[in-house]
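Holo prediction — flavin-adenine dinucleotide.
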Amino acid sequence: MLRFIRLPISKISPYDVIIIGAGINGCCSAYTLAQAGLNVALIDQDGIASGGSGAAGAFISPKISKAGELKEIMGEAHAEALEFYTTHFPQFTLTKPLLHIANSPQESEKLDHFKRETSLHHSVIDDELYTLLTPEASEDSYIYFSEGAVVDAQGVCNAMAEGIDFYPLKVEKLIHNDDIWQVGDLHTRHLILAIGAYPKLLPIDYVGLRGIWGHRIDIETSTHIPCILHHHVSISPITQEGIVAIGATHDVHYSPFSGEVYDVEQGREILLDKASKTLKLNNINILKDYTGLRSGSNDYLPMLGSLVNAEETLKKYPHIRHGEKIDPSEYIYYPNVTMINGSGGYGFVLAPYLAKQLNEFIIKGKPIAPILSPSRFFPRWAKRK
Ligand SMILES: Cc1cc2nc3c(=O)[nH]c(=O)nc-3n(C[C@H](O)[C@H](O)[C@H](O)COP(=O)(O)OP(=O)(O)OC[C@H]3O[C@@H](n4cnc5c(N)ncnc54)[C@H](O)[C@@H]3O)c2cc1C
């Protein structure tokens, strides 16, 4: 049972941690920290999984990328996520083989490289699956993993938040006094910002994030889909028997904050057109639309770490503006604030990996890998100012 709490009028005891944002990052962090024994409060303006997370297809799929730091992180996160969801939330996790088909010559090149390097088990597709594909899809390069997974995004977020104090509250202002953060009437030493692609709450313009709008649909179809398919869009059975998910679009131009109305019909058409390039879906009945913003970082790496107080740091080291190199440990940070964000289209894959590192940082003081730090964007931003 979720513990919905009305804001108390009188003073309440402080929490060990307050998390703002109840998407997959906020919920998974809350779950992990509460499991470790911390007293956690979770806040969201619109409820659990109401942002990008509620819209997600929530595939736990490997990222097809070439060698490098991103590949290392995504590989580790993917293994961690498969283990995490199947162990702790099996009722919200469907495992199926996963067929990833390249959708462009560039992807085909990446995929061939990935296939040569990966230690994940994969094989050739059988005749039944082959005959299901369109001629275009059956000619493209592919990798067929024996293990893929898809989670019920809203179900798993709600299950993670169970037993945690939840406050339905839009946070407008953060106040820091005597080493304590005040959020509405709540108090804590340690604040976690897991607010996705929403306005940032602190003056941290250097944090390189952009919102990428996505639309996916749940459908009924008489076509049997035997596995998870990723091609121009994903087509997959989900945890609910008889329902197939199709998604999602990637629209970098539309923003729900612009006031413009999103064209749902057009989004559906795009999805069905893309799906038809992979296979023929018969007797389609659209059941539900899901839309939301992914929050992607400018360098595609996720973000986990402390936030630089830009104004104070530039006051102390004004020559950063002219390119002076200062060790990030010398920057001035907002005390005890950690941001978790920038997961792009892989929030469900990355969340258990990021929450584990957050837990070790808060409980054991283990430093977070600098490559994940949101402060990595600060020097370049300061120079441009
Ligand atoms: C259509 C679509 C399909 C996707 N498919 C996949 C997929 O297959 N696999 C995968 O791994 N990932 C997928 N993703 C990406 C994944 O959903 C995101 O990476 C993930 O949702 C990011 O989670 P988050 O918790 O950081 O942000 P969000 O889920 O956006 O959560 C942020 C929350 O913060 C709250 N908030 C913000 N500001 C305030 C405030 N001031 N006060 C109170 N509350 C506030 C918001 O209400 C929101 O609920 C998909 C995303 C979309 C949109």
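READOUT: The two ends are 49 Å apart (CA to CA).
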